[in-house]
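Listing S7. Sequence submitted for prediction.
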Amino acid sequence: MLLNRLLDLGEENSVLLAEESLQDLLDLPATAEILESSLDADACIEIQGLGRALHLSDPAEFWLLLTDKYSIRKIPEDYFDELGAESRRIVQVEESDFFLALTEYFASSMAGELFCDSCPVEGAPLYVKDRIERLKGFLEPLIPQEASILEVGCGSGMATQALLQLGCQPMSMDSDRCDLCQALKSGLMAPMSSFVLDARLLPCFFPAQSFQIVLGFMVGLIDDFNWTLWRDILLKASSLAKERILFTVYTQKEAELIAKALGKAGWNGEVIDNRDSKGIYDQWAYLGLREG
């Protein structure tokens, strides 16, 4: 696990996060409970500016990682001073590597059903090969292989396969745990590049323009009743793109709604007619380039 390597711990060491999801790292519900209890830690590893791992021996031996990096709630500095851990050391870690380590931890834990009582999903996700091949042809002239990419709303990763087969290495996310877990269990998505989150919370973890490209496939279905929600999702996600954005949808109306909203946000874009005879996936698209 990357987390072990960042802490300079062998793989035989168990490292657990106090929280159970990226979203919990914003509110810190479990951390708040821990701060009210008395821990008997005999060693502490400080990840400078990012968090601390505490070595506990009772009731089992493991390292407990606490981080308030992404939260407005902060762990009092004197909390760690009062622990009186005899062994202390500091490690320097890039924030981007720290996030990858958290992503891998949560994804692997989810696929291992660490946070679930039971799993309702079995077998590999259903992928439509014709859609993947068609999407590859559409994307190839638009998406450079070496670009840093964030894919929002990846679901079980069907469209992600088109990106991977083109040689791209996207960070992919969705709000549905079960869809993404199914792809992870099947080995079709990588734990270090797949995470669960409400897309509206993306700016809490990534600075503006963190990725060259932000895209999403078959976003929606968008209608008059849920447009406010989708507009918020698309605006928050698009704020993380430095160069371009691309969203595919089912109908022309959806693409034009997206174009109007993102045009007002400063994107110079176009609606693309990508219809085929089957008329199911990725029929229309919006491609936007950042002005200036």
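Caption to Listing S7: primary sequence and predicted structure tokens for the chain studied. Residues 95-111 form the longest helix (17 residues). The chain has a mean pLDDT of 93.
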